[in-house]
Amino acid sequence: MADRSFPGGYAGDLEPKEAWRLLSEDSSAQLVDVRTAAEWMFVGIPDLSVLGRDLWRIEWQNFPSMGLHPSFAAEVESAVERMEGDCSTPLLFLCRTGGRSQAAAMAMTQAGFLRAYNVAHGFEGELDETRHRGNRTGWKASGLPWRQS
Fold this sequence. Notes:
Elements: E1 12-14, H1 16-25, E2 30-33, H2 37-43, E3 45-46, E4 56-57, E5 61-62, E6 67-68, H3 72-82, E7 91-94, H4 99-110, E8 116-119, E9 146-147
Parallel strand pairs: 1-8, 2-4, 2-7, 7-8
Antiparallel strand pairs: 3-9, 5-6
C-alpha cells in the first residue's frame, strides 16, 4: 500500500528542467533511467558528465518480454547503499514518456524512499505532428545534455 503522505503514491512529477536543477544543486540526487538496454543503445541517454556523475541504468521491464524486472527495487536500493545514501536520497526516475518511470517512483516510495520523483514526459516525450518523439516535450526537447551510447 502506498504511503498516504504522498497523494499520488510518490513524491511527484518534475519537469525535465526542474529535474536538471535538482541534480545540479543536490549532489546526492540520482537520475535512474528505467528504459530497456535497447532504448539506451539505440535512442540515447541523458549525459550527466558535466555534473561529474553517472546515470543509473536499471530496467523497470526486461526486454524483449517487457515483464517487470523482479529485482528492480533491490538493484536501486543496492545502488543507493553503494553511494552511502539512505531513504531520503532524491531519486529521479526517467523512461521514454513518463509511464514506466512513474510506476518506478511509486514502487520505490512503497519500498520506503521519501523522495522518489517521476521526470515528466520522459526522455523522448510526446509524439509531434509527424509522429516523431524528442521534439515537443521531454529531456531531449528541453535541450538538456544527452548522448548516443
